[in-house]
Design brief:
Largest sheet of chain B: 5 strands, antiparallel
Order of helices and strands of chain B: HEEEEEEEEEEEEEE
Helix content of chain B: 10-25%
Strand order of the largest sheet of chain B: 2-5-12-7-10
Number of domains of chain B: 1
Structural class of chain B: mainly beta
Number of strands of chain B: 14
CATH topology of one domain in chain A: Immunoglobulin-like
CATH architecture of chain B: Sandwich
Shape of chain B: elongated
Helix content of chain A: 10-25%
Radius of gyration of chain B: 37 Å
Strand order of the largest sheet of chain A: 1-3-8-5-6
CATH class of one domain in chain A: Mainly Beta
CATH architecture of one domain in chain A: Sandwich
Oligomer: heterodimer
Largest interface: A-B, 66 and 45 residues
Distance between the termini of chain A: 90 Å
Radius of gyration of chain A: 40 Å
Chain lengths: 215, 194
Amino acid sequence: MTRGLPRRSVATKLLASSAVVGGALALTFGGAFATLTANATGATSVTSGTLLLTLAKDGSSAGLPETISAMAPGDAYNVYVNLNNTGTLASAAGMTLGWSANPANALTNGSIANEGLAVAITQCSVAWSAGSCSGTTTTILGTTPLSASNPVSLSNVPSLAASSGQLAHLQFQLTLAGNETSTNGTLPSPTIQGLSTTITWTFTETQRAGTTTNA
Amino acid sequence: MQRTAQRASEVAVALATLLSASLASMPSASAAQVALATSTSTVTAGLWGATPTAASVTSPPDCQASPSPCGPVTLSSSYSHAYFNLWDTGTEALSGAVYDISPAGNQAGPLTLDITACSAPWLNFLWFSFCTGTRTTVLSGVGTGTFPVTQGVPPNPGDVTYLQVSCSGWGCQFDVTISISVGPADVVTATTNA
């Protein structure tokens, strides 16, 4: 009975055995067909620049912030400040000065014609000393009423803290214009007299233009 | 096959959307940085003004300024003197004033006025007057008109100057209006370097 096994069963076993061996070979040598990879490496170190602007008193001046009391027409109140580009980036042309007043009143809003506060800025090539400049003066901002729209552009910006680490010595002047007559101890109406306001000044610099470097 | 193609299309759309979102969230390469430096100024404007007020006089009884406080100061005098005070009620020192003298009715003889300041109140007795302080001539022999003066104004805020107006003729009578004004042009100005 045993010899009587069908021939088809033997063939089936041979086929199955071949499949198993073939599969094993395929698993063993299949990697021979994978893509080869080669790597080449390099490094780039990047440090971003900084754009910083500071405002500090110049020399013995009280600098900013300042408080002015009982200001009268014709008075000029000067403080001396250093505008310093302390970042690592140069600034672009077009530095501006902006301001806002709180409260806004006739001292700053132009509600009385030809009256109110005005600002002017003059740069000295060296530090100011007791209100005088022993170097060369440059007008950064001519007398500008605070009722004018702002921010305003500052002139001669290349000399005004344009480069990294550059220091500008500035005379920051406030003046008051007025033409009023008080009669019998009574203030005219409207008036700039007896008013108070706090003005916030903002110097703004923009970074230099971006550059393309081929190295 | 059709289902595989559809799946591939969906994946492509998703990748494109993701890439687009990533680009949108990246800063623009052309953006510029801005640096600010800020500070403040606090300003209070002064007061500049003066108050002419009626002088306190007892003799002669009709030598007085009216009304009180008054302005324009109307002096009506049948005698030769009238008095008023100039009081700096502001916060600023004054360097001068402007007197505007105009006729106001009764006038006998040519109108020639003298205005004299005294640092202390005038003392009057009948037709005589005495300055017990420093006496300063403000205007002398003037008629009507506008006269800027630098004398006879209060030297400091809060100070009072005592003024006497007299006519130059014996027995003269006059009604005049004197307006005194001080303004920014008269304000002592200063440049402060702080």
